[in-house]
Every structure is written in C-alpha cells, then in structure tokens.
Amino acid sequence: MARRILWFSLVLAPVAIGIDHTSAGDVLVFVLAAAALIPLAWLIGEATEHAAHHTGPGVGGFLNATFGNAPELIIALLAIADGLPDVVRGSLSGSVIGNLLLVLGFSLFFGGKGQLDRFSSLLSLGLVFGASLLFLIPSIPSWEGDPERHSLAVASLPVSIALLVIYIGVTWYSLRRHRELFHASDEADPMKAWSLKLSLVILGAATVVTALVAEALVGSIETFAHEVGLSEFFVSAIIIAIVGNAAEHGGAVVVAARGKIKLAAEIALSSGAQVAVFLIPAVQLLSWAVTPALPLSFRQIEIAAMLGATAFVSLVLLGGQSSRPRGALLIAAYIGVAVAFFIAGDRGD
C-alpha cells in the first residue's frame, strides 16, 4: 500500500514544477515541492538498491552514499547559488540531528525491545562527534564578524578534506556491512530486481527531476518562511531536513516495525554519520564551483545540538539495548532541539 502511494505521489513533481512557473504564491510552491521530494527521494533510493544488486556491495555502497544524498546535495548547491548559506548549513546540521534523534527514536519506539550492534553504533556516533569537533575550526571564528568571509571558506577546506579521508578510510567498511545486512533481510525475490540499464535510467531521470523540484523549493523558502512566521533557519533545519530524508526515515521505521531493530538503528546512525563526514564536506568542496564558496561556519546552537545529540544517543544506547521508552526519550529530545531552533531564529535576530 505504501509503495503504491509513493508511486502515485510522483505526480506531485510535475505539478510542483508547473505551479512554480505560474503566478501561484510561494507558500503553495514550497508545500508542493516539499511533498514532491519525498517520493522522488524514495525512487532514487529504490533505483540505487536495484542497481547495487548488479554491481555488488562495494560499488553499491558508493551509489547509495552518492545518490542517496542527492536531494540534500542538490538543495544545498542551489541554496548556495541563491545566496542562502545559512539555509544550507541549517539543512545539513538538521539532517545529522534528525537522523540521530528523530529517525533512531521512532525506530526504537516502533521496534521495541531488541539487541543493537554496539560496535557499529559507537563507530557512527564517533564519526559524528569527531566531525562536530572539526567543524569548530571554521565555526568559532565566525561567531564574531562576518560568518561568510572568504577566509572561513578557506579554513573549511582542510576540514572537508580531512573528513572525506576519514569517510573513505573508516566508513567504507560500515557501508558494505550495511548493504549486506539490508540484502540479508530483504524479503523481495532477488530475481525481481530491475535491470542495471533500467535502474540507471530511472536514477538519472529522478535526479534531474529532483533538481527541478529543489530549484522551486529553494526559490520559495524566503517567502514561505516570512508568510508562515518561521525563521529561514527553522524551515531549513527542521522542515527541509526532514523532507530531504523522509523516504529513508520511513524505510528505517518500517524495518524496525518488522522486528529488524538492529538494521533500523544501523540505517539511522550510519545515515547521520554519512551526512557529517561525507555530505557536508562534499557540499563545501563543490561550493567552490558554484561560488561563493561555503564556509562551514555553523552557529553555536547547531554545534551544541550536534554534540548534544551525539552524547545523548550514546548515553541512551550505552547498554546496547532497544526499547520503546528509549525511543520516546530520543523523540522528546528532538522536539526539544526543534523548540530551541524555533526560539533561536535567524542569525543576527
């Protein structure tokens, strides 16, 4: 049933693109574009999974990491080009926090009691913690003066390179392991996989359409935030971060509800780590081609939220056990972060 709804929801993409070229208000455009990104993100995920069936876990892990983050990456690059650096940083930090608290929280809540993989969990949390500390290098100087100054973008370069090296050296094993766990639990008949050619065609088409929908979304952010009385930071860190990951978030929760809590936790935590050590530095490096280059000058509240989320999740998962109360605690913590982001408003308010 859920798959049928997602397939049917793909019609929202052309509707959102078409509405964007009319005189309709930006609030309607933002809502339609945000809704359209959910099935598109799911379709990209489906295509990468089917392609990985033919390429093996190594290349499959690369495809998953690259195209699985395509909606967030496209939104980020378009927002940089539109001069919305705070929106970019907000959506990226919000994605890390959302995976750690919201997705993992719902996974534990719907999965109930179970045993988690402590090694994998600690590895992902360690990556996020280390990345958050590295972000302090360009962030601390940005708390005084212009946070978008070029010197901070230059200072972000070695941080980005270091994170990508860590990603290649440490996360590759985790990605392969995640894919093996996924296939081991996949209930579908392997013979039903799409052909490699069809998978790549769908992947390419979905990515192009996602870029068009993301362009409409980014172009309507400022007006939407103003019209509904929310800060651009809150819209990016909460709404866009959730929408960009919605399909994967839902997948993790469904897996947990089926009793595969270990795999669900792996998806949530490794997704958060991927954003921190792969997507954020990738966006920063690619931003040099878009210009102006993006400084990784996160606000105090973003750094505090990422470090706090990492510490809190580590405490909750200390015993390597899953339970509904633990999930409820993580969801409550996310609500607390969302409230803090709402109060914080935009930078300089």
Commentary on this structure:
The protein has 13 helices and two strands. The termini are far apart. A two-stranded antiparallel ribbon has the order 1-2.
Summarize the structure.
It contains 13 helices and 2 strands. It has helices spanning 2-9, 12-20, 26-55, 57-67, 70-81, 85-111, 118-142, 150-185, 196-228, 232-257, 261-290, 300-316, 324-344; strands at 114-115, 321-322. It has a two-stranded antiparallel sheet.
- Structural class by sheet pairing and helices: mainly alpha
CATH H-level name... which superfamily? Answer: NCX, central ion-binding region
Number of strands: 2
Weakly predicted, low-confidence segments: 184-191
Give, in spatial order, the strands making up the sheet with the most strands.
Answer: 1-2
Strand content: under 5%
